[in-house]
Amino acid sequence: MSTPSNPFASVARQPEDLHLALADAFNRRDVDALLALYAEDATLVPTPGAAVTGTAALRKALSGFLSLSPRETFVRTVSVVRAGDLALTQSHWGMQGTQPDGANVVLDHHGVEVMRRQEDGTWRFQIDDPFAGDAAAARGVNPMQRK
Question: Which of 22, 66, 100, 117 is the most buried (most CB within 10 A)?
Fold first, then answer.
């Protein structure tokens, strides 16, 4: 039996574990480990306003992020709202990297994700919008908390 390339993929027993696995896969620059964290029909928003769906499109979008040679990637869970086998999460993430032209890049954003618990009890991303929480974070508001 082969071992998954991402050590967190089979142990993402909580939504927060999926965030840790994402950071780990980015730091290892492992596109296959990243893809293992997404449902086959998942949707990712790699740039604001541009969503992609499906394995091939996700691979291309995630490879674009990996072209930045990410390092020191972190993904912190800000909040989790569960409804059965779904979880709506808010995250704060960032990475340092190097653009293909050699210029340094530092990313620091707030995302919103929908995760789905799989039959084996692990979680995968169903919808991942890594920039969806930026406007609320800039205003100092958590959009998932009611006043």
Answer: 22
Residue in 1, 6, 9 with CA at minimum distance from that of residue 118: 9
Domain-located, residue 147: no
Q: Please give the mean pLDDT across all residues of the chain.
A: 88
| Cα dist from 95 to 4, 82, 104, 145, whole Å | 24, 27, 11, 26
Q: pTM value?
A: 0.85
Q: Tell how far CA 51 is from the center of its chain.
A: 14
Domain that holds residue 85: 15-138
Distance between CA atoms of residues 6 and 37, nearest Å: 9
Q: Which residue has the tokens 């995302």?
A: 111
Per-residue pLDDT at 138: 63
At 100, list the tokens: 């293909």
Q: What is the mean pLDDT of residues 37-53?
A: 94
Please count the structural domains in the chain.
1
Is residue 77 situated within a structural domain? yes
Instruction: Name the token pair of 40.
Output: 């086959």
Which pLDDT does position 146 carry in this prediction?
43
